[in-house]
Write a structure and sequence with these properties.
Elements lengths: L2 H22 L3 H17 L5 H8 L6 H22 L8 H7 L5 H27 L7 H26 L8 H14 L17 H17 L6 H32 L1
Length: 260
């Protein structure tokens, strides 16, 4: 099998591992180290990121229409990577969460999960900004892809574990559950609240929404690439704020389900 065939698979596997490791790391220094190592690896070997980052990288200098097509290809590639990454994310079930947070209520566990994910997302944004401050700048599109994948992985893991904490996991096998959590990420709602169900077909409303969410997420990742450490600070702040907001949105739906 060629490098082009294996690289995307390696990328999604590593992104899933890093998203879980950064989320579960206890020290901020370790979170930054894990996120930074992944970002550096992707940026220094941009071939791993495949056509999506190349499409974005070569978008500069093209006409408006061609640049938009390139950007669309990049977001389509990114959506495919997210769908491939999701089933590989390490998700703690209700028993594991209760063992890790003994004698705590579902609300207390959810508080800890949202805080941990927000700190992890901040670390991912800060890592991209620090690497962008180095004298030899990595390829920015590859960095954006790396940060976006890790942060989206952190947020999908958060959604899955919030469902577990509240005793409302998505139905089906692992692949079906993780697809449902990707849909929940796109809709910013609990699984039972997703309009139209989970249908990731080409051109479906859910697929279009996922692509729009990823385009916005990648746009926020670009703030991490600002000059010197101002980019790291901006990326960390935006990531933390948005991940915390997402967690609270999901919690509201899960509480309503529990009351119902």
């Amino acid at each position: 099998m060629s490098d082009q065939e294996t690289a995307p698979d390696e990328l999604t596997l590593r992104a899933a591992e890093v998203a879980a490791d950064v989320t579960e790391a206890e020290r901020p220094q370790e979170q930054r180290r894990l996120a930074g190592a992944f970002t550096k690896a992707v940026a220094s070997g941009a071939r791993v990121a495949g056509r999506g980052t190349r499409a974005a990288q070569h978008g500069a200098g093209l006409g408006v229409g061609a640049a938009r097509r390139r950007a669309g290809q990049g977001i389509g590639w990114l959506a495919a990577q997210v769908m491939a990454m999701a089933p590989r994310l390490r998700v703690r079930d209700q028993a594991a969460l209760q063992a890790q947070f003994p004698d705590r209520s579902a609300e207390d566990i959810a508080d800890a999960l949202v805080d941990g994910a927000a700190h992890a997302a901040a670390a991912a944004g800060g890592a991209a900004g620090v690497w962008a401050a180095l004298p030899t700048l990595p390829a920015f599109p590859a960095e954006i892809a790396a940060e976006t994948l890790v942060v989206v992985g952190i947020e999908i893991k958060l959604i899955a574990e919030l469902h577990e904490a509240y005793g409302s996991p998505a139905p089906g096998n692992r692949a079906e559950r993780m697809s449902a959590y990707v849909a929940a990420w796109a809709h910013r709602r609990g699984v039972s609240m997703i309009p139209g169900g989970v249908i990731f077909a080409a051109g479906s409303p859910l697929t279009r929404l996922l692509r729009r969410r990823l385009a916005a997420r990648a746009g926020r990742s670009a703030f991490s690439l600002g000059p010197l450490l101002t980019g790291a600070a901006a990326g960390a702040y935006l990531n933390s704020r948005e991940t915390r907001r997402l967690g609270q949105d999901i919690r509201r739906d899960l509480r309503r389900r529990a009351i119902g």
